[in-house]
Amino acid sequence: MLVDTHCHLNSPQFADDLPEAVARALQAGVTQMIVVGYDMPSSEEAVRLAERYAPLFAAVAVHPHDSKAYSTAAEARLRELASHPKTVAIGEIGLDYHYDFSPVEAQFAAFRAQLALAQAVSLPVIIHCREAYRDTLDVLEAGDAQGVGGVMHCWAGSAEEAQRALKRGLYLGIGGVLTFKNAEALREIAASAPMDRLLVETDAPYLAPAPHRGKRNEPAYTRLVAERLADLRALTREEIEARTTQNARRLFRRLQP
Asked: Hey, which of 72, 105, 159, 204 would disulfide with 7, CB 3.0 to 4.6 Å?
């Protein structure tokens, strides 16, 4: 069995075939999927989907792209959503310097506020970081996330930054990029990082692994990520499945069979 620790089945791209996508995942051995929110509507939808489908769980948050809209009302609603028994994390939160959708100051404010929320509700965090690894890790190391576990989703940082994240106690989320031809640096990190700190994910509908690159991603393709990771670690696919599932359930404590 496998856990897709990061997907967006709440995306409009799954509006026409969500039941089929869930069925394909189950057929591929992906028995649990965390549907991750990125704004208030998608966070509410993640919880609704978790209620509707037994294999689905939710994470709720405001993404850095939308952090300029973060408010006390949004935080209060997130707190309510976080109390749902199938909400397993606060996420995705963090910093994104690739796009200028929200000012950096607003991103920092929303990031820190949601780290505090995670502390208050005793949930781990799912961290989005794009072209902002130093600042993201600085925030986490400054004590803003004291006692909060989490995963650096879709890891794309350097080996040195990976060591900082691991030292902080974070997990690394490994997705379809692992199969890309130009991802040798990521493969080196995935091959050498402690096995008990790796998670597999898809980020569906984005970043589909080879041979589906350029097409819509979906949770069934978690298996392709796991197979590539097994090759890199010289482990069997079954060993990767067992160990990454164990890691997921250790971090996301509400994610139980």
From this structure: 204
DSSP code per residue over 39-53 = SHHHHHHHHHHHHH-
Count of structural domains, the chain: 1
Instruction: Please list the alpha-helical segments (H only) found in 68-139.
Output: 72-82, 104-121, 133-139
* Reported pTM: 0.97
pLDDT at 44 exceeding the cut of 70:
yes
Indicate if the pLDDT at residue 102 is higher than 70: yes
What CA–CA distance (Å, rounded) separates 94 from 38? 11
Q: Is residue 225 included in any domain, yes or no?
A: yes
Residue 237 lies in a domain: yes
d(CA 44, CA 41): 5
32 within domain boundaries: yes
DSSP assignment letter at 143? I
> Domain range for residue 38?
2-251
Secondary structure (DSSP) of 239-256: HHHHHHHHHHHHHSTT--
